[in-house]
Amino acid sequence: MVSTSLALMPSLLSIITLLFFTIDDATPLRSIPTCILALPFAATSSFLPLAMAVDRSKFRTCQQTSFCRRHRHGKSRRLYDYRVVGESVQIHRGGDSVAADDGVATAIESVGGGGLLSKFSRRLLQGKGGDGVPTTAGTGGGRDPHLRGPSPVFTAKLVNVAPFTSTALTARAYGDGKCNPGAFAEELNLAVHLHEDGVARVRITEVLEDGAGPRSAPRWTSDELVLNEKEMVAMKGEDVQVMSIDPSIQRKLSPDWEGFSNEAVEGVISSLMKRANIEAQSKDNFIVLSYGPAGGKRWHLMLQLYPFEVYFFRGNDDGPPMIVAGTGGLTHFEIRRNKKCSGGVEGGGDTRKLSDFDVDVGDEADDDEGEDRHGGKEVVGYWEDGLAIYADGTREERREVETAPTDDGAPDVAVDVVGGEVDEQRRLDEEYFDTKDMWEEKFGDHTDSKPHGPMSVGLELTFPASLHLFGLPEHASSTQLKTTAGSDHYYTEPYRLYNLDVFEYELDETMALYGHIPLVVSQSMHTGTAGAFWFNPTETFVDVEEVAGSSKTHFMSESGIVDLFLLPGPDPAAMYEQYARLTGRMPLPPIFALGYHQCRWNYRDEADVYHVHSKFEELDYPYDVLWLDIEHTDGKRYFTWDNKAFPNPTEMQKKLGGHGRRMVTIIDPHIKRDINYYIHKEATSLGLYIKDKHGDQDFDGWCWPGSSSYLDFTTEKVRNWWAEQFQYNKYKGSTPELFTWNDMNEPSVFNGPEVSMQKDLLNLNKCEHREWHNLYGMLFHRSTSEGLIKRNEGGNVRPFVLSRSFFAGSQRYGAIWTGDNEAKWSHLEISAPMLLGLNVGALSFVGADVGGFFGNTDAELMTRWMQAGAYQPFFRGHAHHDAKRREPWMFGDEVMVRLRAAAMTRYALLPYWYTVFWQAGLTGMPVMRTMWMQYPKIPDLYSIDDQYLIGSDLLVKPVTTAGATESEILFPLTDCWYDVDTLKRVELTGDVNTTNTAVSLAVDSDIDKIPVYQRGGSVIPRKLRLRRSSHLMVNDPYTLYVALGNDLKAEGKLYIDDETTFDHEKRQAFGIASFHSSWGDNIVIQNSVYIGNSDIVDDKVVNGRIVERIVVMGVPTKPREIRLKSDDSPIEFQYDGESKVIVIRKPGLSALEDFSLYLMK
């Protein structure tokens, strides 16, 4: 069969090409013979690659990326040397105002002590014009229209005092011979913003120029698209003290801001210098911003004037700084400049537009993009891996591309030199500095015109006394960041943050994947928990290095500004609360979204859907959602149905809904360019698409439908229009039971550079794609989520949207999954570290495809993956259309029973999962936690990523190797632990009074067992009735599992609402049960209930939330009697002396009423 299929490959590929890419309304799918229609599903597995390694030739390395190559390993260090100009320092009382459109201007008007602001300071703050009216972008001194959050407390001028600067270099390399390199001053604005929770924001931007030059308007930033403005509250002015012994700065401090004598100020500065191990510096080289409420926590931000560095301390200890920014001389900011100059430019006053110069904007590249890689063949389509499909039925083969070895520190040798006579100095400069690709950059067949030239920014961050850094998701690597620089680096390439559709990604790599969050978290016994959020959505590379007991990260971004948020912690709970206030909180999902999801590319038709659904029903196998991939549409036209395969979609959804099930359909961002397709027709007429690099034509890229256009989701009117498309009268065949899956939203463009968009494409505001690339997927996700809310009257039904791509803040819009994994043990093993990495980035609602997307899984692997998936926040099985069917019953009855048992554990724990998700939204703490998040004082747990916690109370160790019957677990000795199956306490050797150690223990993990343990000191609610969906469980009674701690105490919460609507927010329709047990105080269990709105949470609701069983573990001796305090009536119970477990059955209590059971010993 295989040999026959391979022999037929050309003709079969021609047919598939026809089916996937060329069918239109003129050649409807139903007109093609059935035997032909069956071929893609029956025969493609014989010749389509399923387990190939990633095609590395499609994706750039640092060495192939101009800005990374220029700045990595300090190669450009000699071009940048920044000094804070003391005379420019301004202190502002406007810290307690929140900046919206005119917040910074408000800060200007509120300046204390320093007199009227100079013209420079007004430009520095980018505020109002001299007449008090906000200036507009595009005029000299125009404010940043996107700036949000607390106004700056401190502003100053930052000047590059290097003898030879970046602008001088480019003038010499690219200039017309009439430039005056010495006249190219590089001046920046420095602003510090302080938040009431201790967060410090350090923001560096260009000084704007008058006229119409390259710096006449602020760079595009995305505060209003990402930041959680409502919770970004400024530190009160009276709680900030600014200290300096520099006379020029002291004059700027009003008397009530000084607060200290010179001797006291010197003492503070000396103390901080000592803590930072700074010796060879004068005290007048520092400014200290000390802030925090009187009698509360305090923080110190110490600015070193020259060379510019920022030291971030906690004020309540005497340890080293948490974070130091600007170390290593690696700060760089490539200010915008003209490519060529003439007439002996003085003082940077050349304000002509780029178009006035001979600037290469890439037009020539359109006519000359190198050799024809297709050999003259006609291209009729592209696959997801970016390879072409030809009209003769053949397919482009991968090309092996040799890349230069990555630079490990030494400067590059000479690069291409611009033609013509080159003087000796230019030659020497270019031998040391890399000036290649600054105004035009090629990769493969694609040319980036880069009309604004080099615009990169970068900064090194040092985390003193910390060797454990986490974050920078998403990468297929360990949760803890490994070194990429230094003598003993683990990886050669830096971590890359650039959202891409990486077909068949490899493991243990720093390559970019589908989404990214530029957050680094440090965990250390010496400095506690601290975070650094590099707020920049452009392509970014990050090097990680360990030096002398400390860790360093070097951020290098292609464009944007330096916008750094420093999060002081001091522990994980505090830091994640701070991060939630910055980027937003995760909303509570509908409970069905926490159940099991069954997906495949593709369930073929309604008969297939009904068959799958009926088998789940027949086998009493719980599931909540059935998914449809792209083949359900009419020719990949989203918001439509294939009328032959799915003639009655509304009836189909209602039938499944009658059993408590929902459905999900896929809706991707690429829009088929078909004028008869109503979505495309309307979007075109309204002008909603991303434009080409000239801004004239709609961008045309290739994806699943073939020729496609892409909506500009950076624009509010486009997001609103997209949300409207989900209205039931527009999305025909949709019902309230239908939800959405957003895929391919990196965005994926099969024929684009790196399978994505060209960076010089323009949004509707003429801003280049490079500036907002990493935001695209999140904004698409956001707009879809808003559409699902708006489609229902009153907007009162919670949405569910799954997205593949993401950025910081995506937690506000729905779930994320790790993309196209493989049916291999290695991919099961990496799933926990990847998901933990996403949780480090505050994305909690995450999962990996159970069973692996590509390839075929066997029974053991499927069993272990289903067991692991039951304990990950998003729980979905999914498979490629060429993979064998793998619904739970496809492996035989014995395996089905095991898979069902795993799913049942998930459903039994839904009350706990729902409560943990509620707590995550409330506190910011992740749902799926690394061990150090719960035990930050146990260093042995910092690097562990093969076991984790769900909430604070369930320890999970997935089995990820074939044939395993035993697993090693590190148990924190801070708490005791109970096996959730046997209910027995785990016997651990060690001192229970030791709080900073963990003990390794081998535990049973045969094929029917996944090691899961409940923390002693916790109370976990479950529902034990076997139901086929979460909807059918709503009125089921609770069983409370009480695990007594070493002190014979336990506590826990149960959150209850209607599980579907926003009434818990809009009408306070919720209840919180707080359980407490204290055996030493004769309290078996006590419940204290808080009801949000008792008019809604009435007696009917209360009486429907019954506790039918209470299980208490770790009871040392059998009590004589247990009584209910309200009427002193005895309660029946059973005690097992071997397991030391008490079971109380049918106590006749409601989880939403106060009660107390007490002991009679």
UniProtKB/TrEMBL annotation:
Domain Glycosyl hydrolase family 31 C-terminal: residue ranges: 924-1020
CDD domains registered for this protein in UniProt: GH31_GANC_GANAB_alpha, GH31_N
Main location class: endoplasmic reticulum
Compositional bias ranges of the Gly residues kind: 128-142
Localization in the cell: Endoplasmic reticulum
Pathway(s) it belongs to: Glycan metabolism; N-glycan metabolism
Compositionally skewed regions (Low complexity) per UniProt: 403-414
Any one GO CC term of the record: endoplasmic reticulum
InterPro entries: Gal_mutarotase_sf_dom (IPR011013), GH (IPR017853), Glyco_hydro_31_C (IPR048395), Glyco_hydro_31_N_dom (IPR025887), Glyco_hydro_31_TIM (IPR000322), Glyco_hydro_b (IPR013780)
All copies of domain Glycoside hydrolase family 31 N-terminal, residue ranges: 300-543
Region (Disordered): 128-147, 341-376, 394-414
Top-level taxon in the UniProt lineage: Eukaryota
Keywords of this entry: Endoplasmic reticulum, Glycoprotein, Glycosidase, Hydrolase, Signal
Family as reported in the entry's similarity comment: Belongs to the glycosyl hydrolase 31 family.
Protein name: Glucosidase II subunit alpha
Organism: Stephanodiscus triporus
